[in-house]
Design brief:
With 366 residues, the protein is of the alpha/beta class. The chain folds into three domains: 46 residues, 434 Repressor (Amino-terminal Domain); 134 residues, Response regulator (Rossmann fold), CATH 3.40.50.2300; 170 residues, Response regulator (Rossmann fold), CATH 3.40.50.2300. The chain is built from 14 helices and 13 strands. A seven-stranded mixed sheet has the order 7-6-8-9-10-12-13, sandwiched between helices. The radius of gyration is 27 Å and the shape is elongated. The termini are far apart.
């Protein structure tokens, strides 16, 4: 059984109110120094642990934020947790790995039942949110900041998102300007709805740029074989575009067939996985992977800033805010240099290729 303030009061022969005042402010000169020392010592000996939840509830706040994510993205989750802690908030983290309405509903209900002060949420199915979820959020009457995608049925909620469209456009233009004959979007069969929509957007943007494209689908665990089969049937230079582990599968497939990266196969990672200590998947790969960088730490910072602002009621509750994190192309060793760089050195156009339809977005070589 946990130690209570009354237990300490009985040990010291003082009132419960006195114990509460002293433990909250040990330097409180309203009480004699000997009394204060006795109470602090007794609390330590008995192993007293303050009930911050109960204390905060009396003040109308739990100092707890809910964070619900469909998967573990350390760059985002660590950032939110650390920034919230710096503002005096703890974080209740839950994952909803299955795009199932009941899974998300249970996670959100658990956060509400814990009386979190606010909720930061990335839905796995933002285009098909259940009425029960919308009703729960309405009744909870708490600040909600959405990550990545707005919710159908809840256009009033704040959103912090990446500029996916510009990121895809930059990546396509880069692969086109590097002279690849076609571009390929890699997509896991068990992807979330937003990822499937992003593949459709990729197809549209590639057509707009005038370069042949295809979406290559397969099971995540078998994706190296899926890419290998494609490369066997298509000997022409191809640029591949995939998130995180899919880009690594593409690299493994090219390596197993002896297809040179970046000369024959260009690999561009959409986003990057960041871990503690600055570890980045793109930098640890050999060759280092070119990326369209979508900053998880910046997304985390914007989300926490937006939440704290809501909690402090600096803006009217009815005013929806949206933050868009820009995409930035980082060309490394897994894609060819762009034509403009080759032309400046040779004044020649790569054999068998034609100039891109549009001027590529400025890029960063690292």
């Amino acid at each position: 059984m946990s130690v209570t303030l009354q237990d300490i009061a009985d040990r010291c022969g003082v009132s419960r109110v006195t114990v509460s005042h002293v433990l909250r402010r040990p330097d409180n000169t309203r009480y004699a120094e000997e009394t204060r020392k006795k109470i602090v010592a007794a609390a330590r000996e008995l192993g007293y642990v303050p009930n911050h939840v109960a204390r905060n509830l009396k003040q109308g706040s739990t100092r707890l934020l809910g964070l619900v994510m469909p998967f573990n993205d350390p760059g985002i989750i660590d950032g939110i947790e650390q920034l919230a802690q710096a503002r005096g908030y703890s974080t209740m983290i839950q994952f909803t790995p299955m795009p199932d309405p009941q899974t998300e509903l249970r996670a959100l209900r658990a956060a509400v039942e814990r009386r979190v002060d606010g909720l930061i949420w990335q839905s796995a199915q933002p285009y098909a949110v259940s009425g029960a979820v919308l009703e729960l959020l309405r009744r909870a009457d708490m600040p909600v900041v959405l990550l990545q995608y707005p919710l159908d049925g809840a256009p009033h909620l704040d959103v912090v998102s990446f500029d996916w469209e510009d990121g895809l456009r930059q990546g396509i233009r880069h692969l086109q300007a590097a002279g690849y004959a076609s571009v390929l979007h890699l997509l896991s069969e068990n992807c979330y709805a937003p990822q499937a929509r992003r593949a459709d957007l990729f197809t549209h943007l590639a057509a707009e740029a005038g370069i042949p494209s295809r979406v290559l689908r397969g099971k995540l665990q078998d994706f190296t074989g899926v890419v290998r089969d494609y490369l066997r049937e298509h000997p022409e230079p191809v640029g591949m575009f995939g998130q995180h582990w899919l880009a690594l599968h593409a690299r493994n497939a090219a390596e197993s067939l002896g297809r040179a990266v970046p000369e024959e196969v260009g690999i561009l990672m959409l986003g990057d996985m960041r871990f503690g200590g600055g570890f980045q998947v793109s930098e640890m790969s050999r060759p280092r992977l070119s990326t369209v960088d979508l900053s998880g730490p910046e997304l985390a910072a914007r989300a926490v800033e937006g939440m704290i602002s809501r909690l402090r009621k600096k803006q009217a509750d009815s005013e929806r805010r949206e933050y868009v994190i820009p995409a930035r192309l980082r060309a490394r060793e897994s894609t060819r240099p762009e034509w403009s760089d080759l032309l400046s050195a040779t004044d020649e156009t790569p054999s068998g290729a034609s100039a891109p339809a549009a001027t590529p977005t400025p890029r960063v070589y690292t």
